Amino acid sequence: MATDVAAEIETANDDSAALIRVENLKKYFPIHKGVFSKLVGQVYAVDGISFHIKAGETLGLVGESGCGKSTVGRTVLKLLEPTAGSIHIKGEDITALPPAGMLAYRQQMQMIFQDPFASLNPRMTAGNIVGEPLIIHGIGNATERQDRVAWLFERVGLRPERMFAYAHEFSGGQRQRLGIARALAINPELIICDEPVSALDVSIQAQIINLLMDLQEEFKLSYLFISHDLAVVEHISHRVAVMYLGRIVEMTDKTSLFEEPLHPYTEALLYAVPIAKSGARNRTRQIVEGDVPSPINPPSGCHFHTRCPYAVARCRTEEPKLREVKPGHLTACHIHDRKVTLPLAPPEA
Prior knowledge:
The protein is an alpha/beta fold. The protein has one domain (about 5-110, about 190-335): 3-Layer(aba) Sandwich (Rossmann fold). Helices cover about 30% and strands about 25% of the residues.
């Protein structure tokens, strides 16, 4: 009998002290068509994933564009209502809470968005943008809020006198610093970072990543760091979860993932990096053929079987469960039932 995914994760990683615990999370978007809006299908954006994040920990979530990473972040914060599954914050189940009931939990969870301009109100001054969460949650009086906003500006590397400027007067990196300051305003414990550096120049990316790491150490923050950039994820994360077409296919600490990936998709992702920086560079190069299937009509069985060089008949009919293959290293692949290892020969010159 197949073991439940959540139980497998608990076996591999003790989540008793988890700040957030997600179990079998699903998010489907209905597709309507015609004059009467008949339901004709669904987009399986997130298709049953489980993970936990401890206090002070960063879980990196990686995968190709369209695999459901950003949807995970928004659903965890309940900006999108989950279709199924559960979300626990410090042991409290918030899955079914209405918007009004979520207000108290908003202080514990905040988000840094991908686009540092679209996420800022162009009609508000920078100081008002950063201070708005304080007003919503009724924290402090006007003077105390202004003092905190000024302190936040300094803490993220902005001059306090720029509190009265508007978003369009800041550069891309400065706008993202505003987004970080806004997320920090009410002292959250968990921050969802949705590709926070993908729209920035490489030199600015490094500054923002270092700032996030400094803030994590100072305030004991936990991050769900969503990115498609493996180099960034390797730098900032403690553990990494790899997503493919709405499912997590591998999860472990970053060292194990980059030195010895156990899933063919992870292997292919590592070789997509122009300059390999891990032990995986000594493996035979694996090039994934074909395109990512549509999340409207995903393949049966293992979603990756249509592109996997190791796929067998079982892969087309039976969904592999995310299970512990090595201590602390979970993967969802039938390869390891067959005792087949990924190739170890060095790549051709």
